[in-house]
């Protein structure tokens, strides 16, 4: 699939017919006729989700009531689902929990890393991240630095300051997104983790746009911490709880300030002082939203049934096709590819800058081709191999150029853009 | 209802027939024959919950997909549902949001209070709470103090140190539970808030066992912050998101370190520095679990249809009845009431200490009478006027004394207790 791209719509249909992942589309319920290119913002609904929700509501909550914390395994959901997710991100057993939000988990992992550094080298007071990172990653780092005071600060990598230049002896922890939310550019996790360790830093990887989309090997890469969400490529449902991983080497030496009762060694002993449980469980804090969490399993089960290598190969073939079809028709349109061409630097979405990006995306959405828009001027197309095929990419690019070539967008829509996801 | 308690089972049935709240029971789906006395741990399932979940899954997620953040109002859920809750706790419009967990919201409000004090009187470095508070309240305070360092510490009120004695010039903020999770004892919120303010402190009220159970008037009481959960007396579903309130006087002067993108003034502008939105919205952090949050509305709508005064009057009548029936039959049993007798000091549950409390509760649960157990030795009975009647209290006490009088419990079960909710 990686070398010979289809060059006609019929060839796309033929490629889809031979696709080893083609049957996974039936595991999702998508509206007829829609081409959904926003699975990197909110994944599609697994077919099993309503039955699972009904079971949780009727049998577990309705009938089991409070007993279901034990009998239906509600207490075990963060760890049990974390273990299911582990194999998709190169984590070991009992190294991942599903809990809280990505933002909250960033806070926990940054705080834990800072605490480790306070015991190793207290002069390390800088949290390093990227100006181009998803904003909440920057904001959470700012929140910690501001709260701690004592000289803690945030430093941003950007076009004027490379990672290597920024990695001074004052850097405590580096927070990077494995795949950039806007451009789709991907860091080399192994080389970058080593580069940071060589400079004495710890690293937190945000896998929001990576988990379930690209192969991730946290243990192999020697990463320290990772967080991410389950509602994008993992299809857990709107706002489904996030995940957090810590390298087993840190399990009993990390501490984090969101020290709620779910992370206590003996939560039901009702002791009057906090003592963290051993291991990843100390990243738990408060009572979790059971219904939203239970649905994470529906999405995970679909991803676990697929070969991650096949998903990656198809993702690259589809993004290659998208890029090739756009290149062939771009002409004079001010449409600039901002996603890397090199496979090893590309995640699973393709993004273009266009001065009228917002209005063009609205015109596409009106035709049932759902991508999304990101500031500034970026049209973003998420490629989810489990429910998209070659012909979907073909049809999406056809529609894009029908709009571009015939100027079928309403530029006045631009002012709406900041209210839109 | 407050003065004449029924003294026979028939009189209980007659009282139920005259109860103005009797029809609310049909708004909940409870298993036939069960007497559910644990609504203070997990509320019952509202009849509308499955239809709501189905709508969110099929129409909003399945069909609307990413568009539902706007078209189905997902972004507005924290504020819209917060406004519904506001009237139940004496809050004003746009003063409450539903979000995250009670533990996380405690962290935010304690951190916000500390930050306010840092600008007023930086020598105030003590977080004051109760040794008998729900443990997560203590643990979250410990987490903040530990993380801040710089002399911050936690002080605990207990039988050796009263609130007044503990309120030194070093106290920044006091975190109290309006109704104690174990004993059901209730603070006078107005007098206690004034007492704390007079000593220069700020106060955070944890309403977990109060919201929906007893009248709460946060604004009238002059409170500063409040947090609480929606899955107890508000019947929001297992682990449904919590709430947080801040007095409007603090709206533009508070700051909190969980500064995620949902609390940003312009979240979709993707700016590279945090700027909090004005008002309660700055207590938001990350993307919320939409399905679990949407179900909060089912429970809120039932509570909003009831008169809070009628709920309180019935709660006191039922807890009075429970206490009177137990007193009449206690005899030589080592069953000690630990809930205050005075109405103005009692929440909506009744608790007894008994050396074999755990095993006795297990015997009750085996008969379909669901209360719960809390360390040490405490049998806890939650009284939820919307779906319990006088005859339920009568039958529960009958069963309790059948077990006590005939020693029908298995004391060997005691060792299981720490694994049970």
UniProtKB/TrEMBL annotation, chains A, B:
GO terms for molecular function: kynureninase activity. Its cofactor is pyridoxal 5'-phosphate. The modification N6-(pyridoxal phosphate)lysine is found at residue 232. PANTHER family: KYNURENINASE. This is Kynureninase. Pathway: Amino-acid degradation; L-kynurenine degradation; L-alanine and anthranilate from L-kynurenine: step 1/1; Cofactor biosynthesis; NAD(+) biosynthesis; quinolinate from L-kynurenine: step 2/3. Transmembrane segments: none annotated. SUPFAM superfamilies: PLP-dependent transferases. Belongs to the kynureninase family. The gene is kynU. Its EC number is 3.7.1.3. It is an enzyme of class 3 (hydrolase).
